């Protein structure tokens, strides 16, 4: 039944999970996107193109979190053991093993864990692109301040064609890790992370992929990508609860490293009387201490929701909406398209530029006065306006956003 929780609370303690029937969203073999849109509770008249920042949760996720909290609080329980089925579900979703997946709070936490796990020293080189989000870059800049690592910034090819070669050319004998986005938060450029990870492994260099913009927007197969680390959030394209995320750590890294934090659930053996502490070498060691079980279960409901629709359908829908927007933008030379045209290296994010506009201020103004929510892209001096096309967006909503952008273009032109 649409809108009802995935978890059956009558059998909650057995962790039995039910899923929405595919017929809920499928009509004659195709997805009924109107039915999908109805699962979201966005305010009427709100044009939300900010899923690349914060994705709204569908009703099934909200209901799961609320019902789980009510149930657990009525019993005075936390049930850390309920995390395992969610972890297993995510591992299946990403085509990897559950012992390489850890449930965390967001991408930033994951990147900090990676930065502290690698054990760099002064002079070691880390490669970052100029299009990294602060959450992906700051942990490495902190190490530069603290211990004197060397950060090498690379300029990505905006067309998407040369980025593997750019990474290859940047690697030196001092390079210890390449930290790269799967999809950039700036222009939505999709990078060849599988090939980058393979080349890094060949050169004896670690690879860390920031998947904040990829997981839930495009299909992600971690067995195929085979990075050393992959970090992402649940609150963007996955439409999960805020404060959810995951870290993937390759089994070889897990075997020879220790957790960043020590406490309950990080240990394989603990005895205070004998001063004994031995660590787990599985990724659930990052789920230390008391967890927020309801939102973790909500994350699992979000994975069920996405799986029911199908990632191939979701990726196709995002590209379809982006393609439509690009085709309309081309009719207006005053609006510059910053996102690549080639669909092999782009997906559901499109960034544009209107000459002379302070994008951060204008996006705030548009949100306040027009109820159209976009994001100004100031990173790497792009000065762009980013629109993220999610599964609840429609072509009619895109037309409305386009009229707002045309108005801004015309206003700027008349002021010249």
What does this structure look like?
The chain is an alpha/beta fold and 416 residues long. The protein folds into 2 domains: 80-305, 3-Layer(aba) Sandwich (Aspartate Aminotransferase, domain 2), CATH 3.40.640; 311-408, Aspartate Aminotransferase, domain 1, CATH 3.90.1150. The chain contains 13 helices and 17 strands. It has helices at residues 33-37, 59-75, 83-94, 107-117, 134-147, 163-170, 193-202, 222-225, 251-255, 293-309, 311-329, 359-370, 395-415; strands at 26-27, 30-31, 47-48, 101-104, 125-129, 150-154, 175-181, 206-210, 229-233, 245-249, 267-271, 276-279, 335-337, 349-354, 372-373, 375-377, 384-388. A 7-stranded mixed β-sheet has the order 4-10-9-8-7-5-6, sandwiched between helices. The protein has a 4-stranded antiparallel β-sheet with strand order 13-14-17-16. Mean pLDDT is 92; it is low at 1-19.
Helices, by number, come to: 13
Strands, count:
17
Structural class: alpha/beta
Mean pLDDT: 92
- Strand order, main sheet: write it out: 4-10-9-8-7-5-6
| Fraction of residues in helix | 25-40%
Please, how many domains?
A: 2
CATH architecture of the largest domain: 3-Layer(aba) Sandwich
End-to-end span in angstroms?
A: 56 Å
CATH superfamily of the largest domain: Type I PLP-dependent aspartate aminotransferase-like (Major domain)
CATH class term of the largest domain: Alpha Beta
The main β sheet shows up as: 7 strands, mixed
């Amino acid at each position: 039944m649409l809108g009802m929780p995935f978890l059956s609370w009558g059998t909650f303690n057995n962790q039995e999970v039910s899923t929405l029937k595919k017929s809920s969203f499928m009509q004659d073999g195709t997805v009924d996107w109107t039915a999908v849109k109805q699962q979201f509770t966005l305010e009427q008249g709100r044009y939300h193109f900010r899923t690349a920042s914060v994705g709204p949760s569908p009703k099934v996720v909200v209901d799961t979190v609320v019902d789980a909290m009510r149930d657990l609080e009525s019993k005075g329980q936390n049930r850390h053991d309920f995390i395992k089925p969610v972890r297993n579900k995510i591992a299946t979703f990403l085509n990897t093993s559950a012992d390489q997946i850890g449930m965390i709070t967001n991408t930033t936490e994951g990147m900090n864990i990676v930065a502290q796990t690698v054990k760099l020293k002064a002079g070691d080189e880390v490669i970052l692109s100029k299009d990294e989000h602060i959450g992906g870059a700051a942990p490495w800049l902190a190490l530069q301040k603290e211990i004197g690592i060397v950060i090498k910034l690379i300029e990505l090819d905006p067309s998407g064609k040369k980025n593997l070669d750019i990474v290859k050319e940047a690697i030196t004998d001092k390079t210890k890790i390449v930290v790269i986005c799967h999809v950039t938060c700036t222009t939505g450029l999709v990078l060849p992370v599988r090939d980058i990870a393979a080349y890094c492994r060949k050169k004896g260099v670690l690879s860390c992929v920031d998947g904040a913009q990829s997981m839930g927007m495009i299909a992600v197969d971690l067995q195929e990508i085979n990075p050393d680390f992959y970090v992402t959030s649940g609150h963007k394209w996955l439409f999960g609860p805020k404060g959810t995320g995951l870290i993937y750590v390759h089994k070889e890294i897990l075997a020879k490293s220790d957790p960043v934090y020590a406490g309950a659930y990080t240990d394989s053996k603990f005895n205070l009387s004998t001063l004994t502490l031995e660590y787990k070498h599985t990724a659930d060691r990052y789920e230390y201490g008391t967890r927020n079980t309801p939102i973790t279960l909500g994350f699992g409901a979000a994975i069920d929701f996405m799986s029911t629709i199908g990632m191939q359908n979701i990726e196709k829908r995002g590209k379809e909406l982006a393609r439509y927007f690009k085709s309309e933008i081309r009719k207006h030379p005053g609006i510059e398209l910053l996102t690549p045209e080639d669909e092999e290296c782009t997906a559901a994010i499109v960034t544009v530029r209107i000459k002379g506009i302070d994008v951060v201020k204008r996006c705030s103004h548009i949100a306040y006065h027009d109820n159209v929510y976009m994001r100004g892209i100031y990173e790497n001096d792009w000065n762009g306006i980013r629109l993220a096309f999610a599964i609840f967006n429609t072509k009619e909503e895109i037309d409305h956003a386009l009229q707002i952008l045309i108005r801004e273009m015309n206003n700027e032109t008349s002021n010249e």
